[in-house]
Task: structure prediction
Amino acid sequence: MTSAVRFTGASRHFGSVRAVDEVDIDIAEGEFFAMLGPSGSGKTTCLRLIAGFEQPSSGDIAIFGQSMQGVPPYRRQVNTVFQDYALFPHLNVLDNVAYGLMIAGSPKADRHRAAQEALELVALPGYGKRKPSELSGGQRQRVALARALVNKPKVLLLDEPLGALDLKLREQMQEELKVLQRKLGITFVFVTHDQGEALSMADRVAVFNEGKIVQVGRPEDIYYRPEVPFVADFVGSSNVLPPTLTEKLIGRRSHAALRPEAVKIGPQGHAAVVRATSFIGAATRVSVTMAETAMIALVPKGQAIPAIGDQVHLSWDADDLHLMEPGA
Amino acid sequence: MRSDRASVGLKIAAGAGLAFLHLPLLLIFIYAFTTEDKSYQWPPPGLTLKWFAVTWDRPDVWQALSLSVRVASISTVIALVLGTLCAAAVSRTKFFGREAVSLLVILPIALPGIVTGISLRAAFNLADIPFSFWTIVLGHATFCVVVVYNNAVARFRRTSGSLIEASMDLGADSFQTFRHVILPNIATALLAGGMLAFALSFDEVIVTTFTAGQQQTLPIWMLEELVRPRQRPVTNVVAMVVVLVTFLPILGAYYLTRGTDTVAGQGK
Result:
């Protein structure tokens, strides 16, 4: 398979800060790729490296096999949906969408027709004459998407595009983005700090921490088989057991991850004390302390909820205790 | 509860303040129509329009007016170019001493005109530059740049930086980005700054006194006229013209910069 975007040992340093540190990524053509990480982990800088707003301090970035060394943003076949949408306030929606085509020298009638089609694609037909300031956040988001897509980019970059939307709209847009990506077959590179968003939308996820990629894989791999404690901790609220506790439990000195839904509260197992409980809809979150380690167990609807201060016993299937590399 | 209605005392105070500011202006206007031309006598013994005709036929008025318009126009153009570049540099990039540069740009307007005037005169003398039309323009440009800079820098700060990146991302090079994105977004600020600069230059006296050679700009001409009383109301007619010529751009600038709080890149 052709690689749409390839990072080879790419770094970006700001003074002494290594925003991106020796990153290697291979994003396949047509892939929906998510870059996930906390703020300041280097994921947005990686996106800006692809877009061309930043140049790597060392290493190389290639788009469809072509090195992007010294290629300015306006000569790259990638387009970006910005976090703040960055719609041009002095242009109406139609001219915003047609901007890229106008710069490319397309005649007015052609580019307006293409812009209309792009607006229909994002379900905003008939909004062309409005100014961006007259639109809601969700509508601006769609215009930004149309403005990028109308140029038929080889890679579409999305910088936390759903960050400013409310929950319901966000879920709807997640669905729509996925459908759109399948339909157009364009490679999407998506930056987010929301693990739920990354896991539900992407074909593959790269988890960033302190400028490095700590794990790349399919959402299931990231969720069920975290390779390092950071991933287990950051992606969903997984219990991370310290090496001392793992040694006591199964005789191996290593960090281990245990998903809360795998923890069963019952008559047998390891003794623990209930610290707090909170109702979260389909289940109840029970915080317990086991051998001086704070852990979370999810008790599904319909089962007895222990009271705070209760002595309980925890158990899990041996398969659910997932060993991770020490350290990292 | 807070009352939004002003008290009677406040209304009187506001009225008195406005009268203090504007009654002298009214006097100037009235004397432009007086029939008596030696001393300003109150009340005017009679009213006439003949001073407008007299003014129209005076070549020295026309010379001074034309010089003032030319000086103001060229100073404004210089200020627009330099002020915009300066504002772009200060608000778009980070460099060592940026705040100091920002302060140094604004300083000329805070300095008393007489200091600016003396220092420019000394500098021109040292550099052996003869006083001419261009020395007046240079003198005026010093404070005109500040006005344009202040307007442009405020607008630049409100214009989101990602607009420029968005434009580049969509294939526009620096020049196209300037033409299609930056210029439309700062245009009204530049127009307002330019109008203010024009108005400031048009009625400037102090710096001009130090940097002019034999030429007389309109305000300098008026000053001279007051010293030698000859057809005095002519000065008043000219004063009226000056008020109108400077007031209109200022009014325009006010309307252009008002209500633009939601300009540019308030994306969310």
Remarks:
- DSSP finds nine helices and 18 strands in chain A.
- The interface with chain B takes residues 51-53, 72-74, 78-80, 82-90, 99-100, 102-104, 133, 137, 140, 147-148, 151, 164 of chain A (CB under 8 Å).
- The domain at 238-323 of chain A is CATH 2.40.50.140 (OB fold (Dihydrolipoamide Acetyltransferase, E2P)).
